[in-house]
Amino acid sequence: MAVVYLTRTVRFRAMHRYFRPEWSAEQNERAFGSCAREPGHEHDYSCVVTVRGHPEPDTGMIVDLHLLDRLLREEVTERFDGRHINTAVADFAFGRTIPTGEMLCLHIWNRLAARLPDGCTMHAVRVQESPELWAEYRGEE
């Protein structure tokens, strides 16, 4: 049976700051530029998630779209929208993971992959901060 890919995009607005608390202000500024400045800055993010699988013969779907939408709402939109990522999401608290697009991709991938039904797997996650800047993860090590 053919492998099919299904892609869904969700959007959220969130603030983040690149900052290592163990570094001086000067070190942070050198490493992260203006992204290190308090309180942080906002983006209108797009998160594009692609899953893959074999269409179920009875429904023609690789995953129930209502389920995928619920997972995206719970793991992406509700987690990030309208929030300061560094203070609202424990994994990105100051001194932990810096909320770059790259690390947001990995975070979202891991959370969604753990919740997908059998027969449906992650293929790609793209976190886009602007039309000119995005990060993408495809499960490669």
Describe, in plain words, how this protein is organized in 3D.
It is built from four helices and five strands; from the N terminus they run E-H-E-H-E-H-H-E-E. It has helices at residues 25-32, 65-80, 85-88, 101-113; strands at residues 4-16, 41-53, 83-84, 120-130, 133-137. Strands 3-1-2-4-5 form a five-stranded mixed β-sheet. The protein is elongated, with a radius of gyration of 17 Å.
Draw up the topology in text.
Layout: E1 4-16, H1 25-32, E2 41-53, H2 65-80, E3 83-84, H3 85-88, H4 101-113, E4 120-130, E5 133-137
Parallel strand pairs: 1-3
Antiparallel strand pairs: 1-2, 2-4, 4-5
Brief sketch in words of this structure:
The protein has helices at residues 25-32, 65-80, 85-88, 101-113; strands spanning 4-16, 41-53, 83-84, 120-130, 133-137. The protein is an alpha+beta fold and 141 residues long. β4 (120-130) and β5 (133-137) form a beta hairpin.
Task: Sum up the structure in keywords.
single chain; 141 residues; alpha+beta; five-stranded mixed sheet; 5 strands; 29% helix
| Number of separate strands | 5
Shape: elongated
In which range does the helix fraction lie? 25-40%
Sheet-strand content, in percent, reads 25-35%
Low-pLDDT ranges: none
Q: Main β-sheet: number of strands, strand sense, barrel status? A: 5 strands, mixed
N/C terminus separation: 27 Å
Largest sheet, spatial ordering of strands: 3-1-2-4-5
Using the CA coordinates, give the radius of gyration. Answer: 17 Å
Mean pLDDT: 97
